[in-house]
Amino acid sequence: MAELQHFGYFFSRGFGPQAWGRDDWHWGHDWTKPDLYQQSVRALEQAGMDLVIAEDAISLGNPATLDLRIRQAYGGPKHDPLLLAPYLFAATEHLGIAPTINAGFTPPYLAARQAATLAHLSGGRFGLNVVTDTGSARHAGLAPLPHDAAYDRAEEWLQLVRRLWHSWGTDDSARGAGYVGNASDWHFADGDALDAFHHEGAYFTADGPLNALPLDTDPVIVSPGGSGRGLGFAGTHSDVQLALAPLTASAVRDYRARVLTAASDAGRSADDIRVLFVLKPVVVSSPEEADRIVAASEHPSDEALRAAAVAWSSDSETDLLSLDLDAPIPDGTFGDHVSAGTIRGLVGDTPDAPLRELLTRKARLGRIRTRDGFVGTAEEFADFAEELGADADNDGFILSGDLHPAQVYRMLGDLVPVLRQRGLLRREYGDGGIRGNLFDF
After folding, report:
1. Measuring CA to CA, how many Å separate 237 from each of 2, 12, 224, 260?
2. HSE, side-chain direction, 13 A CA sphere, residue 350
3. Which residues pair with 51 in a beta bridge?
């Protein structure tokens, strides 16, 4: 039997209008209320997911792309996913929740305190998806940073957050050396044991200690990013790396090797990090249906090309619709705030190709069976997952979609039984919270 792999769910629209633009909207769920999300995460926990990661983008974008982001609710509006987390914990018992937090926008002390609080309240089921988005900086009166400088700032931010988490001192007690807890003379803690440090770095100034009790273990850190700096950050700091790569055994093997090399360079081992590949499968009932869907996308309409352009304009905060479809994207189109991974995701290895060709690639769908896309039956997806586990030592997958019951059941309804029958998907949880979910096998 195949070995277990880890599965999670990426709440890709963020805490925004779930199912907008699809017929699922007519189910009548209110996206501003917790019920919709609670129903969805119960299903995901029943399905054996390790964690749910909530996307977030603080900004609605720059003036050039503002209308593109809100016209179809593609990039906004959104509420804060951190504030949704307690409702999701209340609806589940084992599922990990990792909202996105911006490592430049949110002050380290505030982030450390909020994370410590939610980790305690959830019994260790809280994690942080740390992003380096610089496009939101202007909303907080901060100067935007180039791509690599944003990673420099994120590294200082995370090191400071972790020092705050440990500022009650370390010993065999989970609550740190500063905790006394002697009720006979009402001596709660020893201030001399706390780390009242002063940090003054390149990007942040802050004082310890943290006004929150320390944790048994640090919250899990999730990070995206396929650039050299992104992979280096993950290898050094992250427990989970959200990977984007062609999903062939050789590509997955090569991608994992780069992350694990970065981890080794930082004095960590392969056992310290999980590389989980993000994809959005289209699970259908028969191979014939899959073939029909793929064939229909072979020659995308102008509407389909425009939808692809809107999506990539929103993701990159760059107005692609104003460009000549029959010419390459001009040099200098993408600003410093756009990650190398985002640009590479659009242009691939052909930066001189006309924009129409690039968008056509994105609008086309492919078959899981032939490893050129993600349309297929549950059995075909299981074949694919089993192959990657056997041939590339794959850690697992993050499935991407709206946090909406109709989409969750459509994607997982046929897939979960097959994955479990193959021995690829867990049937039960341990007691270790989000970290236990990710590292119990």
Report:
1. 30, 23, 12, 12
2. 10
3. 96
Averaged pLDDT of the chain = 92
User: What are the backbone angles phi and psi of residue 116, rounded to the nearest 5°?
Assistant: -60, -40
Query: Can you tell me which residue has the tokens 């001192």?
Result: 169
Tell me the pLDDT band of 1, cut-offs 50, 70 and 90: low
DSSP, collapsed to helix, strand or coil, labels residue 200 as strand
Non-local CB neighbours of 65 within 8 Å, separated by 6+ positions: 75, 313, 314, 317, 318, 319
Residue % of the chain over a pLDDT of 70: 98
From 426, 398, 439, 433, select the one nearest 52 (Cα to Cα). Answer: 398
Cα separation of 441 and 428, whole Å? 12
DSSP state of 342: H
Q: Which residues of 297-331 are buried (b: 16+ CB within 10 A; e: fewer)?
A: beebeeebbbbbbbbbbbbbbbbbeebebeebbee
Q: Could you give the CA distance from residue 321 to residue 49 in angstroms, rounded to a whole number?
A: 37
Q: Is 87 exposed, middle or buried (0-12, 13-18, 19+ CB in 10 A)?
A: middle
Q: How distant, in Å, are the alpha carbons of 96, 122, 258, 368, 434 from that of 119?
A: 10, 5, 30, 38, 10
For residue 220, what are the β-bridge partners? 127
Q: What is the pLDDT of residue 172?
A: 52
pLDDT of residue 175: 64
Q: What is the pLDDT of residues 158-207, one digit of tens each?
A: 999 999 999 988 655 556 778 888 888 999 888 888 999 999 999 999 99
Using alpha carbons, list the distances in angstroms from residue 396 to 6, 252, 256, 326, 424: 4, 11, 11, 39, 9
Specify the range with the lowest mean pLDDT, choosing from 20-24, 39-43, 79-83: 20-24
Give the SS3 label for residue 411: helix
Say how far apart CA 210 and CA 176 lie, in whole Å. Answer: 12
Rounded distance between C-alpha atoms, residue 401 and residue 151, angstroms: 27
Query: What is residue 343's predicted lDDT score, i.e. its pLDDT?
Result: 87
Please state whether the predicted TM-score (pTM) of the whole model is above 0.90: yes
> What span, in angstroms and rounded, lies between the C-alpha atoms of 11 and 206?
32
* Position 87 pLDDT exceeds 80: yes
Cα 411 to chain centroid, rounded: 18
Spacing of C-alpha 176 from chain mean position: 31
Distances (CA, A) of 168 to 80, 112, 120, 183: 29, 13, 15, 19
